[in-house]
Task: inverse folding
């Protein structure tokens, strides 16, 4: 489970996630572990960056589908495809900076 109980997600945080070369079933497992551990329940929103070179599985399921399935009922804003990760576009942002999700973008203040 998510860092064996050592992960800390501050109440009200916007959680930023990205990965590279992971199969959709592994991303599914990671998100499910975060949910079951109660980590996603503490977040005010989720922002997913690039999932580069994460090819669809043998069943054709994509990482985008996994993200949508695992987050649709959380009741918080979810933004996918943000410009950070291991891809060509990797915009910098300050971790811990005040932010909010609005109109399909992450806004910092």
Result:
């Amino acid at each position: 489970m998510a860092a064996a109980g050592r992960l800390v997600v501050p109440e009200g945080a916007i959680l930023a996630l990205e990965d590279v070369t992971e199969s959709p079933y592994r991303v599914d497992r990671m998100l499910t572990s975060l949910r079951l551990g109660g980590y996603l329940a503490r977040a005010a929103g989720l922002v997913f960056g690039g999932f580069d070179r994460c090819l669809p599985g043998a069943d054709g399921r994509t990482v985008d589908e996994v993200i949508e399935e695992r987050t649709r009922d959380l009741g918080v804003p979810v933004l996918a495809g943000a410009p950070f990760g291991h891809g060509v576009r990797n915009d910098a942002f300050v971790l811990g900076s005040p932010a909010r999700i609005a109109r399909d973008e992450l806004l910092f203040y």
About this structure: Residues 8-108 form a domain with the Glucose Oxidase; domain 1 fold (CATH 3.50.30.60). The helical segments are 24-36, 63-71.
